């Protein structure tokens, strides 16, 4: 929350409103912010939050401050959330509601739904990066008068120029690398080789980095994904490549699978893996071929294909009987459930929730009512 600055809520030069949503509460990390429920606005340049009752209470944060974001499914008594991870606050940041925060991320809690469309539009804006189209000679003006007339470098060109200058100084002073670690790891212009050189130097503890700084930097590197991805250049092609890839996928996916109840859709796995691999992206074909080798290599994961054709990766220990019992128990408790309602209860995707219900139906434990209101499952009393 210490990344937010006070704002007048008005759109600035070259800025366009994308979407807004009422009933959104802010979280400073895992803690509720000391602010009421408000309206969140997404523009081409900023994320703006305004109190629904007191319109003078308005704060904003530039989209360029965002590292990455993810969805957090709704639970029993809990609203769906979008978790947004942020770069450190700049030293010359304007005043805001929080001076200091122990968290590097915020959460948007959607009390009146709308998170699906908001997440989609936020994804589009972060992909297009339309804020970078603002010329560097015409910076976006801020709400603080003292900032008027100050010209700042805006966009990827200015960032990359700065990074290139710092890259040349890395071998001389690793502390400089520490200061720019977040930016180095997020932009594709920085090569994987440079990323590995940073990791290597931190491992050897060269330079003037303290113990605490070393630990913190290591956590940054690990949070960004795989340090040494399996590639065709390093492991050849064909069966050997897919075997090594399967082993690395097994190590990487165990923790995320355990957090998601033991099963993930292959499309979700594809996005997760490629985000962790950075520039070394996997093709869908290579991912499928590697996943097919889980069982033959006796790894703790396996690829499963449901009757509908949906492909998932699941833990070998994941029990089909447990899935059926879970579906039956939840449907019995509620009387009836749709796939969407079941997904909210378990914190799973709607696709996987539907497959669980269909599996329980196939085994004779549930029956369906397919009407104009949608597909609903009931306990099979017959």
Automatic annotation (TrEMBL):
<dbReference type="InterPro" id="IPR036388">
    <property type="entry name" value="WH-like_DNA-bd_sf"/>
</dbReference>
<keyword id="KW-0813">Transport</keyword>
<keyword id="KW-0653">Protein transport</keyword>
<dbReference type="GO" id="GO:0043130">
    <property type="term" value="F:ubiquitin binding"/>
</dbReference>
<keyword id="KW-0967">Endosome</keyword>
<dbReference type="InterPro" id="IPR040608">
    <property type="entry name" value="Snf8/Vps36"/>
</dbReference>
<dbReference type="InterPro" id="IPR021648">
    <property type="entry name" value="GLUE_dom"/>
</dbReference>
<dbReference type="InterPro" id="IPR036390">
    <property type="entry name" value="WH_DNA-bd_sf"/>
</dbReference>
<keyword id="KW-0175">Coiled coil</keyword>
<protein>
    <recommendedName>
        <fullName>Vacuolar protein-sorting-associated protein 36</fullName>
    </recommendedName>
</protein>
<dbReference type="Pfam" id="PF04157">
    <property type="entry name" value="EAP30"/>
</dbReference>
<comment type="similarity">
    <text>Belongs to the VPS36 family.</text>
</comment>
<dbReference type="GO" id="GO:0032266">
    <property type="term" value="F:phosphatidylinositol-3-phosphate binding"/>
</dbReference>
<dbReference type="InterPro" id="IPR037855">
    <property type="entry name" value="Vps36"/>
</dbReference>
<dbReference type="InterPro" id="IPR011993">
    <property type="entry name" value="PH-like_dom_sf"/>
</dbReference>
<feature type="domain" description="GLUE N-terminal">
    <location>
        <begin position="1"/>
        <end position="138"/>
    </location>
</feature>
<dbReference type="Pfam" id="PF11605">
    <property type="entry name" value="Vps36_ESCRT-II"/>
</dbReference>
<comment type="subunit">
    <text>Component of the endosomal sorting complex required for transport II (ESCRT-II).</text>
</comment>
<keyword id="KW-0963">Cytoplasm</keyword>
<comment type="function">
    <text>Component of the ESCRT-II complex (endosomal sorting complex required for transport II), which is required for multivesicular body (MVB) formation and sorting of endosomal cargo proteins into MVBs.</text>
</comment>
<dbReference type="GO" id="GO:0000814">
    <property type="term" value="C:ESCRT II complex"/>
</dbReference>
<dbReference type="GO" id="GO:0031902">
    <property type="term" value="C:late endosome membrane"/>
</dbReference>
<dbReference type="GO" id="GO:0043328">
    <property type="term" value="P:protein transport to vacuole involved in ubiquitin-dependent protein catabolic process via the multivesicular body sorting pathway"/>
</dbReference>
